[in-house]
Write a structure and sequence with these properties.
Chain lengths: ~450, ~350
């Protein structure tokens, strides 16, 4: 037997899902090699038989039959053969002339079908969501955006552990410098391994690790992805990740959805205003409570100040401790409801939110008003788009709260200024995070 | 990339931040009647200096004034850039000290002054460390948040006015020699100089900045006239910050807040912080040009530290006023010399370029 086959068998000897079948095509003996876990063997054999029967009927030569089966590239090295078997390909070895064919067999169904989005809700928009399979995802984008300007570049990154990454952009609208920069990064870091997005963003693309805001805006929705392509953004797909990474991420992504445009304009504006208000309320409300209660009660009308003081009567510690304490409880509730099975989630929310809150008020541990502020903040927090953005917002409100406890209303302003300054300073390869994707400059690009 | 509207917005809000504190008091103190004359005169001088400066900058092309003076010769650089750096430094000190003082008076009576001044320096330093383009983007965000607040309270400040206080419209020209009138030029001198430093990083068009300057005229006029029309000249002249006092008289029944002045003040402070970050950054540029061995990053940390130390060393409000007055000579020198020299040096270099 050929050396190469021997070597392959040795390499796969510890894998029980490896198969090696003897067969004969047009009178010459062949060996079929592959992985049972990736190839559905019975239908594969059936289809090979069909090919074979057709070949006998039409009296074609062995060489022509090889071409029918798949690519017969003599120059392919042992490493590529190994990789293609791992990738789910069928390796057919012809013993007579020591040649081989790598064939695309019938794969096992290891991908889920296209479903509705799980982490994002769509109001009046396309309902299909990205899946784990990178080809399906690119296909979904192609379906959504049927244009001859759409460009797809696929890269396989990692030597020890290979991962497919696809870069999709709209030629003529995307910033070509940006795309060249990404391609260069891919080429430079071709051998590194991608295990997760943190590594992907740091090792492959070279973005800073300690950034509160991700350089990618993640979306599950082909409609949003296509919209960002039209706006000149770049999509990155990583195989086995049911998300499109829209890069560069921008601030306005947190407030604007493309499916908003399926509503009449005034309704769209209303929705977006609500989101902006939600973000502002999340940042300001807790800080305002702390500032008004503990530092600047004189800013309020006297009636209001009195009623606030009344709700706090009997609370034994300063407002900052009170609010941090309750926020920790809320954070725990949110995290727990993520972890728990869907059936128990609502129970926890009820126990945590209503019973605990009410009990805490009745035990005079926290004030009534704080519970209202807390609920309002938590709800407002969820109005903005994207889990990551909402998480970043959730964390940044603490900056405001702490500063407010020291400097009162001025502290709120300082917190907001710091946040503005931080957002203003973010860039991805020179493209600012706070920027309007404007049509005029898009036209000049490319 | 063209960032005209960012620059225009920045110009607008930086001036808004400067106008409402000292300016009304100075103008009201400078004359008995016909206040619009000193305001318009100051504004016209400001506009003239600005357009001369811009003309010079655009003749010079896509570069900053440090390069202009350096090219003209070391002597020019020392003659113009050194006073400019000192002026920016002094402006930082006065702004930080004044605004911290006002803040402690108005709302933070129990917070120590050093803590307030510290935050007033830390935040602009943070902005400046992030770079000039980042300052402008931050400016846009802050402007979008705070300009509506300013406009809202500004429009409500007309609540208690009596238009008869406008008269007499014509006053004497004696204000020209009043120290307080000369001090009022602080508003005009500080804000426009940063335009000369941003050019290679942030490109802009002349027209936008001029429009932003013209849009400021109503604010200049009404910042003085609102306290005048609310209290009358004789009462208004007794206040240190007449506009802020007149805002304290406003009551908006449906608002749950008693003292809306606080919110106006906060917006103004946020604009002042942008002004500070621009000034710190410009000072850093000048010092860096003088001593290139010092790294910009270290300079941006050490200049605020110096400002902070000086601020701590100023014992009282009367000393700030004195400092402000000493600054006046430098201010007029800067306001006249920088635009003029920029204009002449730039046109000279342009002529040379054409000849060669």
């Amino acid at each position: 037997m050929n050396q190469q086959i021997q070597k392959l068998r040795d390499q796969f000897s510890e894998n029980d899902d490896f198969f090696m079948l003897q067969d004969s095509f047009l009178g010459t003996p062949v060996v079929l090699l592959g992985l049972k876990s990736l190839i559905d063997v019975v239908p594969m054999k059936l289809s090979l038989q069909t090919y074979h029967a057709a070949a006998i009927e039409s009296h074609i030569t062995l060489d022509a039959f090889k071409k029918v089966l798949g690519e017969a590239d003599e120059a392919v090295g042992a490493h590529e053969i190994y990789g293609s078997i791992l990738n789910g390909k069928l390796f057919i070895y012809f013993e007579a002339d020591d040649s081989f064919v790598i064939m695309d067999p019938i794969p096992r169904a290891l991908n889920r079908s296209i479903e509705t989005p799980i982490n994002e809700n769509v109001m009046q928009g396309s309902q299909s969501a990205f899946t784990e399979d990178i080809a399906t995802n690119v296909g979904l984008v192609r379906k959504q955006l049927q244009s001859d300007h759409l460009r797809v570049h696929t890269h396989t990154i990692g030597t020890e552990e290979a991962k497919d990454v696809a870069l999709v952009y709209y030629e003529g609208r995307a910033d070509m410098d940006f795309i060249r920069r990404i391609e260069r990064q891919f080429a430079q870091n071709k051998n590194k391994t991608i295990e997760n997005l943190q590594q992907f963003s740091k090792e492959i693309l070279g973005f800073p690790t300690w950034s509160m805001v991700s350089k990618f805006n993640q979306t599950e929705l082909p409609q949003e992805a296509a919209h960002s392509l039209r706006k000149g953004r770049v999509l990155l797909f990583v195989d086995r990740l049911p998300l499109a990474l829209v890069t560069p991420g921008m601030l306005w992504d947190a407030f604007c959805l493309d499916s908003d445009r399926n509503f009449p304009l005034p309704l769209m504006l209303f929705l977006r205003t609500v989101r902006v208000l939600g973000a502002l309320a999340t940042l300001i409300l807790p800080g305002l409570y702390v500032a008004l209660v503990s530092v600047n009660p004189e800013v309020l009308r006297i009636e209001m100040a009195l009623s606030i003081a009344q709700t706090r009567a009997g609370v034994p510690y300063p407002a900052i401790i009170e609010i941090i304490f309750m926020f920790v409880v809320i954070e725990l509730t949110i995290e727990a409801s993520f972890r728990l099975p869907k059936t128990i989630g609502p129970t926890i929310t009820m126990v945590g939110g209503i019973i605990l809150g009410q009990a805490a008020v009745q035990a005079k541990l926290v004030s009534n008003l704080l519970i209202i502020i807390l609920a309002a903040t938590t709800i407002a927090n969820s109005t903005i788009i994207g889990l990551q953005q909402s998480l970043a917002l959730r964390i940044s409100k603490y900056v405001v709260v702490v500063l407010a406890s020291m400097f009162g209303v001025l502290g709120i302003l300082e917190g907001m200024l710091l946040i503005c300054g931080y957002l203003g300073s973010l860039t991805a390869y020179g493209i600012p995070f706070v920027g309007f994707p404007n049509a005029k400059s898009e036209a000049n690009r490319g | 990339m063209d960032k005209s509207w960012q620059v225009a917005l920045m110009y607008f809000i930086v001036h808004l931040g400067l106008i409402f504190f000292m300016y009304p008091g100075d103008i009201i103190a400078s004359t008995q009647d016909g206040h619009w004359i000193p305001i318009v005169l100051g504004f016209a001088l400001h506009l003239a200096a600005l357009s001369l400066y811009l003309k010079g900058l655009f003749n010079w092309g896509n570069n900053d004034i440090i390069a202009l003076y350096m090219k003209a010769g070391k002597g020019y650089a020392v003659l113009f850039l050194l006073p400019l750096a000192v002026y920016f430094f002094m402006a930082c000190i006065t702004v930080v000290r004044c605004s911290a003082e006002i803040m402690t008076i108005v709302m933070l009576s129990s917070t120590p002054l050093w803590a307030v001044m510290l935050t007033f320096l830390l935040i602009p330093t943070y902005f400046a460390l992030k770079g000039i383009t980042s300052i402008f983007r931050t400016g846009v965000l802050i402007g979008m948040m705070n300009v509506p607040i300013i406009l809202f309270f500004f429009s409500f400040s007309f609540q208690n006015i009596d238009w008869r206080y406008v008269f007499p419209m014509i006053g004497k020209a004696s204000f020209l020699t009043e120290p307080s009138y000369l001090e009022s030029f602080f508003v005009f001198a500080g804000g426009f100089l940063f335009l000369g430093f941003i050019q290679p990083h942030v490109a802009f068009r002349k027209r936008y900045v001029i429009l932003a300057a013209i849009a400021l005229l109503p604010f200049f006029i009404f910042s003085v006239y609102i306290p005048l029309l609310t209290f009358g000249q004789s009462t208004a002249s007794t206040f240190n910050f007449p506009f802020i006092v007149s805002l304290d008289t406003i009551s908006i029944t449906w608002l749950m807040f008693e003292r809306i002045t606080v919110f106006l003040l906060l917006s103004l402070i946020s604009f002042l912080m942008l002004f500070l970050s621009l000034s710190l950054w410009s000072t850093m540029r000048i010092v860096h040009a003088g001593i290139p061995a010092l790294k910009p990053r270290y300079l941006l940390v050490s200049i605020p530290v110096l400002v902070y130390v000086v601020c701590l060393a100023i014992p009282s409000w009367t000393d700030i006023v004195k400092l402000f007055w000493w600054n006046t000579y430098l201010r007029f020198y800067i306001m006249a010399a920088i635009p003029l020299s920029t204009y002449f040096l730039a046109s000279r270099s342009k002529k040379r370029m054409v000849r060669s």
